[in-house]
Structure formats: structure tokens, C-alpha cells
Amino acid sequence: MKISEILRDAADRYLWDGSRGGHQVFSCGAVENVLNDMTNLEDYAYAYHHTFLFLKELGVNIHSEYEFDEVPRGEIRQCARFLWLDFAALVAEDEGL
Q1: Contact 53, 60 (CB under 8 A)
Q2: Where does residue 26 fall: left (phi above 0), alpha (psi -120 to 50 degrees), or beta otherwise?
Q3: Is 68 helix (H, G, I), strand (E, B) or coil?
Q4: In terms of CB atoms within 10 Å, which of 10, 12, 32, 62 comes out highest?
Q5: Do residues 81 and 60 touch, judged by C-beta distance below 8 A?
Q6: Which H or E run contains 48?
Q7: How far apart are CA 95 and CA 89, in angstroms?
Q8: Could you give the CA distance from residue 62 to residue 67 in angstroms, rounded to a whole number?
Q9: How many beta carbons lie within 10 A of that of residue 74, not counting itself?
Q10: What residues are paired with 15 via a beta bridge?
Q11: What pLDDT digit, counting tens, does each position of 4-37 carry?
């Protein structure tokens, strides 16, 4: 699975938007949920390392609960997280990842 697919899947399926089935509040947690769906341990380890390395290179402090504190809580903050994941997916896709 490509990094761009992991990030898009995280935003679309796992990131909570306040109304649908997604349940993860944090964007990195949503990414981890996608990775946890992988059945092959080797694929998981490779994807985990490279996906989070990619996000770090984009400037995110992964596993931080405070990355979006400057954005008002609730739907607006979740929208910022969604846009972040969508942007990261577009960058990854542009880079062929």
C-alpha cells in the first residue's frame, strides 16, 4: 500500500468528523489504524516506518496531542486534521509514494 493511500484512507475512514463512523480524533492515530489493518508484519513495519518518516519530513511532530492547538476545538480542529492528511496524501502522490 502506498503512503498516499494510507494517508487518504486514514482521513476518509478513521478520522472522526463528528457525524460518521470514523472514531479517531488524532490524525496520527487514524494513520495507525490503517496500518494496523495490514496483515503482513513485514509490510506493516515497512509502511509504518516510511509513513511516519514522511510525515516528520513534512514538519509534523508525530504522536503529539498539541499539533493543532492553535485551531479552535471541535469540528474546525478536525477539519484542519483532515486537510493536513489530505495535503500530505497529495504530496506523497505527487512524489510517487
Answers
A1: no
A2: beta
A3: coil
A4: 10
A5: no
A6: helix 41-57
A7: 10
A8: 8
A9: 9
A10: 24
A11: 999 999 999 888 876 666 677 788 889 999 999 9
Among left, alpha and beta (phi > 0; psi -120 to 50; other), residue 96 is left
Interior angle at CA 89, CA 86 and CA 91, nearest 5? 110
Burial of 9 (0-12, 13-18, 19+ CB in 10 A): buried
Question: Cα separation of 47 and 52, whole Å?
Answer: 8
**How many residues are listed for the chain in this entry?**
97
Burial class (CB in 10 A: 0-12, 13-18, 19+), 48: middle
Count of CA atoms in the C-beta half-sphere (13 A) of 75: 3
Q: Grid coordinates 476518509 are at which residue?
A: 12
By the 8 A CB rule, do 88 and 7 touch? yes
Model confidence pLDDT, tens digit, residues 65-85: 777 778 888 788 888 889 999
